Every structure is written in structure tokens, then in C-alpha cells.
Amino acid sequence: MKIYTKTGDKGQTSLIGGRVDKDDLRVEAYGTLDELNSFVGKAMTELDTTLFADMLVDLEAIQNELFDAGTDLANVMKDRHYKLSDEPVEVLEQRIDALMEEAPPLEKFILPGGSPAAATLHIARTVTRRVERQTVTLMKASEDVSPIVARYLNRLSDYFFVAARIVNARLNIADNEYVRSAKVFRTEKSEKKSES
After folding, report:
1. How crowded is residue 120: how many other Cβ atoms within 10 Å of its Cβ?
2. DSSP the chain
């Protein structure tokens, strides 16, 4: 089997149910999902398998869900069935809530960084925001887009933010606060800390 097909040499590519130019909004969106998936894979290589076993389970599920989301964005068939369901959105919400219980108090904006894995998760967060914007643009241009993809991406960026903080916390690396940030976050933990 040859990896190259030559069918894209004139600037077009195949969707599920059609062909479009390679700079089509759909291709841009699912191509960015592929980029995001690569950063998730990189983060996984930077996590200790014992200390971060729970996150590695999360991230492997996320990699598969990103493929599902990409398939849904690439599908333009009239009788299409979407792969991504609401269940992964709900699971992300549960994981975010669980990790937030572990997270140190947060009052100010933080700078991306800390450990290599946390920095990679912050990159994943920002790429997620980009593909979310691209998906919204695609939704405005076409009715043939699953609304679940946008919801999933919105939760996913939140997950990456919290996960990056937990990675640093478990490694005893403090968040690096943005020096000119006002106090923008109010959490029960930060309020309890200020009261004591």
C-alpha cells in the first residue's frame, strides 16, 4: 500500500460524501483537531504513568473522541450519523469537577508553563480554543455541523486548563501568576484561605 495517492495534488481533498478545496472551513477545522490530537499525544509522553494514571486514561479517551469529532466535521452525507455523543461532554464535566477539588486556590490569571507536561497541556488548551472558533465559523456557514462538537470543545479547553494546573500541583510546582492580574477568580477554596 502506498501512503501517497496524488489525488490532492490540485488542492482538493475528500470528505465523507464529497470533495472540497484543502482550505475549506471543514478541512481547516478537522485539520486543527489533528494538530490538537498530536499535542495531546505529546503531553501523554511527558506524564509519569504512576503519578498521572488517571489523566492518562482521560487523555487516551480524549484522543479517540477527537477522532470522532473530526469524523463528524468531515461528514457531509445527507443521511449521516454523528459519532460524538453528549456522554463525553458529561464525562469531561465530571473530571473537571473532580480535578478542581484537588486544585490549589486560584485568584489571578496564570502564565502557561511550569512542567513540560503542563506547558504542553496549555498548548492543547489554546489549540482547542482555535478549533472551537473554527467550528463556530463553520456552523455559521453550514447547517451540516453537529452542535455536540462545539460543546465538547468548550469543555475540553476547560479540562486542559485544570489538568495543566493539577500536573504542576502534583509535581509541587506553583502556578506562575500574571503579575498585573487583578483578582479575577472567586472559588470556595480562595475565600476560605482569605478568611483564615
Report:
1. 23
2. --S--STTTTSEEEEBTEEEETTSHHHHHHHHHHHHHHHHHHHHHTS-TTTTHHHHHHHHHHHHHHHHHHHHHHB--TT---S--SHHHHHHHHHHHHHHHHSPP--S-EES-SSHHHHHHHHHHHHHHHHHHHHHHHHHH-S-S-HHHHHHHHHHHHHHHHHHHHHHHHTT---EE-TT-------HHHHHHHH-
Predicted structure pTM score: 0.89
Q: Are 166 and 99 in contact (CB under 8 A)?
A: yes
pLDDT tens readout for residues 143-164: 788 999 999 999 999 999 999 9
Cell for 130?
482555535
16-195 has CATH 3.90.1640.10 classification: no
Q: For the chain, give every domain's residue range.
A: 16-195
Q: Is the dihedral of CA 68, 54, 159, 99 positive or negative?
A: positive
More confident site: 82 or 66: 66
